[in-house]
Write a structure and sequence with these properties.
mainly beta, 2 domains, 8-stranded antiparallel β-sheet
Length: 338
């Protein structure tokens, strides 16, 4: 009996030691009640990815959720998607959770930052025909300067913003003033300043495609994509607003929040990496995905939110090959975190 007790004690000691070693080797939000990261955090300094160096027609950071670490559900919710961009040329996706008929994307068209969303209309399509889709886009009216670091943020806001950004107003879907009061509506910010807002009013139909109006008569949220995918530098699954493919730009500090941030909240943390604790906290429960992009080498992009959506850096080939040559110094104006 004594030998059995000693053996069990040694086993327990070994188990505790193993847990301590694991908690030391990986970045842990907590070794207690909070979630644990599924991949080791890699931080070799302030890096970013220059997608203008793509050796083909498409390069992106691609991640897919699974049963254990599902991709964020962007339907029926306010949200914020943001990133720092150093533009090299026009057009392309920045950060997307999208399929051909549903989802959200931050992108650039003709050097203008834009934010868009898709919903599947209530009308059913005939067999073999495309799924009827409503597309809502808000432009910033801002022209990106080449090689200048620019912060871009798109928001689906679920509150009346008539007092939050009174200087910027927009039209409702029915053509009347007051779009900034709609719940929800779209906002777009450049360098922390509100630039424009837009409606997500019910689909008005497409006579050319012979798609009748959707019976929805008010603003609506995005629909969640059917697949589990999300990507940097790609709009995913076909163009939106005529834009598709890789953006020719450097991307840094890409974040997806499941909350609609205001101008003050965006300004609060746009100039710093997210650390542990404090106001700019990467342990915030509303932070769904966070690509810090400080790996600096190889073909991995860690999700620093702790939600397990780390992605691979790929170039488009029949076999989707890894791409390791796009790493460059990141935004030098960002305050480094732990």
């Amino acid at each position: 009996m004594k030998n059995t007790f000693l053996m069990n004690g040694k086993s327990s000691l070994l188990l505790i030691s193993a847990i301590v070693i694991l908690c030391t080797g990986f970045f842990i939000l907590s070794c207690g009640n909070d979630s644990q990261r599924k991949t080791q955090d890699t931080d070799r300094g302030a890096f970013a990815i220059d997608f203008s160096q793509c050796p083909g027609t498409l390069c992106h950071v691609f991640a897919a959720g699974d049963r254990i670490n599902p991709a964020p559900d962007v339907s029926d919710t306010e949200l914020t998607v943001e990133a720092w961009v150093q533009s090299k040329a026009t057009d392309g996706g920045i950060f997307s959770r999208m399929d051909p008929s549903r989802g959200i994307t931050l992108y650039v068209k003709n050097d203008e930052p834009k934010f868009g969303m898709r919903v599947q209309t209530a009308m059913t399509s005939t067999p073999g025909s495309p799924t009827p889709t409503a597309e809502y886009v808000v432009g910033s009216g801002f022209t990106l300067m080449k090689d200048a670091w620019t912060h871009i943020a798109g928001v689906i806001a679920a509150e009346d913003h008539s007092s939050v950004h009174p200087a910027v107003t927009c039209l409702k879907g029915d053509g009347n003033a007051g779009g900034e009061t709609e719940i929800p509506h779209l906002d777009i910010y450049v360098n922390g300043d509100i630039k424009n807002c837009g409606t997500t009013w019910g689909f008005q139909g497409d006579p050319v495609a012979q798609i009748p109006p959707d019976p929805a008569t008010g603003p609506q949220f995005a629909d969640n994509p059917a697949g589990p995918n999300l990507a940097l530098a790609d709009v995913l699954s076909g163009p939106i607003d005529g834009v598709g493919g890789t953006i020719s730009a450097v991307i840094d500090e890409a974040r997806l929040w499941l909350t609609g941030k205001t101008e003050n909240q965006i300004q609060e943390c746009m100039n710093t990496e997210l650390g542990v604790g404090g106001i700019c906290n990467r342990g915030d429960p509303d932070l769904a995905v966070y690509y810090r992009l400080n790996e600096g080498e190889h073909a991995n992009a860690t999700d620093f939110s702790g939600n397990g959506l780390s992605g691979g850096v790929f170039k488009f080939t029949p076999d989707e090959e890894e791409w390791e040559d796009g790493w460059v110094p990141g935004n030098p104006n960002l305050q480094r975190a732990d």
